[in-house]
Write a structure and sequence with these properties.
It contains 24 helices and 26 strands. It is α+β, with helices and mostly antiparallel strands. The radius of gyration is 32 Å and the shape is elongated.
Length: 680
């Protein structure tokens, strides 16, 4: 190649490296890309082509070198250029006041000091060395004196600048700078990673922090490269060069100018402002996309901060103000089982009572039997219990290292704990069912459902009375309700004449409920309120519905083959046929209303997203219900989302919505605002 051409190519090569670093920075640090992924890929491709032709040009800071290193045998130890210190904690305002008071006694200038307040990210410390602007070494904290060399892994983290400045007209880098930051994983990425590991049959991580740490301590950098790690920096450990920063605020601004992702900080003139900033982060934490465990308060003036010295490994001039715990450990005393209306057996944990964020927790959900097995949760284990926001407390997993050998492996029940009938597992489902339709647990839940407000709306018939009726053998199925007499109720505990009369009147009044309510009330699996309404629009009465074939039903928009089968199965069962006969004889036999006139569209122009399991209806049904009222329903939360509907066990959409300020609603609130009771 002629010299001139080669020079031009070399120039283009340098330019490409710079451009790609810059676009990485826009994407990973500023979260504000200015080119498309396609254009980015084109630049990378061009760079790779040049490097293939000229391997001798390739430098370690080339963007192609992020995942270049072969697997290591182990990690080399590296001595830190200065101790990598940790932090003392305070847990309330009084302790914070005391901290400052102690410092002021050591040095009265502290009374005039200002402070930075930064979120404390729950990840792991990384120490990054740059010589003449090139990333040369990256280490873990280790014991604070010596860490492990994880340079090859850190190279794969896109937010770690391989070269500074990352943008062409940034400031000159100091000859040597060592930066400290926190590597972490977002909730969303953590869940996706665990999902993938589960699919591949690998061990999952207990929390995002462990996932981040585990990902960085991989011997094969290719594995790290496939893990979505982020970085935020907050400290300069060594600065050799002109104009060193003099305050913590300047540290953050210097790091930012050099192209590092930095933590968002408040600059506070006094403790009142510090406390406000703390409360701001307490509120944000619920919705933040990654784990925060407190704020870090630092005396802004670095000379003053350093003059205060170090106690043990904690510098006096800064302190972590920790958030109230959301995760605690306690002993799992027992595993018990609830039987639901459809016969689903749901295990729950009986715990040694423990307080989380001011609430005493005695029970927590265990989701299902597979969960217990996958997490290897044993009776007697010390377990991690989590309660976040308004989510039902759940068991995250056991503390395996706390085992004594006395723990008992739990065996899922083979028989229903209430009626003793054998249980069944449906192929392809995690749930275990009690298939005895006469099971008292199911029957009382069934009655409760039948009488509920969205179903037959029988005032006064709640869980407790349903259980009493079943226990006294006054009803063996829902139809028996209509044959009850006041005298039957009087012997029951708590029933005086008036109460008995009221209940019988309420039962009789429910005979006029429309067909769709009755269909819903029957409690057929997969048939929520919305599907019931569709069925009532198609079929004249229960006789007509009972004649429908799977094909007929599956042809109805919104009803899938599984629900169609559940419906046909339900009507085929002898026991259920008897229930229908009894209902007919009692005069509970509504006929379909004439097709509704065009329904009003109160939700026109609104966009909804749904997360978590909704009470009594499937996701599809909720979607159809909303759409029938003019709403748009999408899968992901954005600024355009009007409301996020939050069910049980919500996913990461909740955090996202809260971060974006998208209002949230429960399904009950949706019904209250726009449902039948709202005047529709
Ligand atoms: S300052 C002496 N600032 O919290 C310097 N640490 O519990 C101490 N952390 O090991 C660190 N966010 O890994 C500082 N904004 C922040 C932080 C932060 C997270 C971590 C860091 C440290 C641990 C101390």
């Amino acid at each position: 190649m002629p010299r001139d051409d080669e020079q031009a190519l070399r120039q283009r090569y340098e330019e490409l490296k710079r451009l790609i670093h810059y676009h990485n920075y826009r994407y990973y640090v500023l979260n504000d890309p200015i080119i498309s992924d396609y254009e980015y890929d084109q630049l990378m491709r061009e760079l790779k082509a040049i490097e293939e032709a000229h391997p001798e040009w390739v430098t370690p800071d080339s963007p192609t070198q992020r995942a270049g290193a072969p697997p290591a045998e182990g990690f080399r130890k590296v001595r830190h250029p200065a101790p990598i210190l940790s932090l003392a904690n305070v847990f309330n305002d009084a302790e914070l006041d005391a901290w400052l008071e102690r410092l002021a006694r050591l040095n009265p200038r502290v009374r005039e000091a200002d402070f930075t307040v930064e979120p404390k990210i729950d990840g792991l410390t990384v120490v990054l060395h740059y010589r003449d602007g090139v990333f040369t070494l990256g280490a873990t904290r280790g014991d604070g004196e010596e860490g492990e060399d994880i340079t090859a892994n850190l190279r794969t983290v896109r937010a770690v600048p391989l070269r500074i400045p990352v943008h062409p007209d940034g400031p000159q880098p100091p000859p040597y700078i060592v930066v400290r930051g926190e590597a972490y994983m977002t909730h969303q990425d953590f869940e996706a990673l665990n999902e993938r590991l589960r699919r591949e049959g690998q061990r999952t991580f207990a929390n995002p922090r462990n996932a981040a740490a585990g990902s960085l301590r991989q011997l094969d950098p290719k594995v790290t490269a496939a893990r979505p790690l982020h970085l935020l920096c907050y400290q300069i450990v060594v600065y050799q060069g002109p104009n060193p920063p003099r305050t913590q605020w300047e540290v953050l601004r210097t790091l930012e100018a050099l192209g590092f992702p930095v933590v968002e900080a408040d600059l506070c003139p006094d403790l009142a402002c510090v406390k406000r900033a703390y409360r701001k982060w307490v509120a944000r934490r619920e919705t933040w996309p990654y784990d925060l465990d407190g704020v870090v308060i630092k005396i802004n003036d670095l000379a003053l901060q350093q003059s205060l010295g170090v106690v043990g490994k904690d510098p006096r001039g800064m302190v972590a103000y920790k958030f109230p715990a959301r995760e605690v450990t306690t002993i799992l005393l027992d595993i018990k089982v609830n039987v639901g209306r459809t016969g689903v057996l749901t295990p729950y944990a009986v715990l040694e009572p423990v307080e989380i964020g001011g609430v005493v927790i005695r029970k927590a959900t265990l989701h299902n039997f597979d969960y217990i097995r996958e997490k290897d949760i044993r009776i007697g284990d010390r377990v991690i219990v989590k309660r976040a926001g308004d989510v039902i407390p759940y068991i995250v997993g056991p503390v395996v290292s706390a085992r004594t050998g006395k723990e008992r492996v739990y065996e899922p029940p083979t028989h229903c704990p209430v009626c003793g009938a054998p249980v069944e597992k449906v192929e392809g489902e995690v749930a275990v069912y009690c298939i005895n339709a006469a099971c008292p647990a199911q029957l009382s839940r069934n009655l409760e459902h039948f009488a509920s407000r969205e179903a037959m709306d029988i005032e006064g018939l709640g869980r407790k009375i349903a259980e009493q009726l079943v226990q006294a053998r006054l009803v063996e199925d829902v139809a028996d309700l209509y044959y009850l007499k006041v005298a039957d109720l009087l012997p029951l505990e708590g029933f005086a004449q008036k109460k008995a009369e009221n209940l019988i009147a309420a039962i009789q009044a429910s005979k006029d409920r429309p067909l769709e309510r009755l269909i819903y009330a029957l409690g057929i699996r997969g048939v929520g309120a919305v599907t019931a309404r569709w069925l009532a629009e198609r079929y004249e009465d229960l006789d007509a519905l009972a004649q429908a074939t799977e094909e007929d039903l599956a042809a109805i928009e919104g009803i899938g083959p599984v629900t169609a089968r559940f419906i046909v199965d339900w009507f085929r069962r002898e026991r259920n046929r008897k229930v229908l006969e009894k209902l007919r004889r009692a005069g509970v036999w509504p006929r379909a209303r004439r097709p509704a006139e065009a329904r009003p569209q109160p939700l026109a122009g609104l966009t909804f997203v749904i997360t978590g399991a909704l009470p009594g209806l499937t996701r599809e049904e909720a979607k159809a219900w909303l759409e029938a009222r003019g709403a748009k329903v999408t899968n992901s939360v954005s600024r355009k989302t009007s409301y996020l509907i939050v069910g049980e066990n919500p996913g990461s959409k909740l955090a996202k919505a809260q971060a974006l300020g998208v209002p949230t609603l429960s399904w009950e609130e949706v019904l209250r605002r726009w449902g039948p009771e709202s005047g529709e």
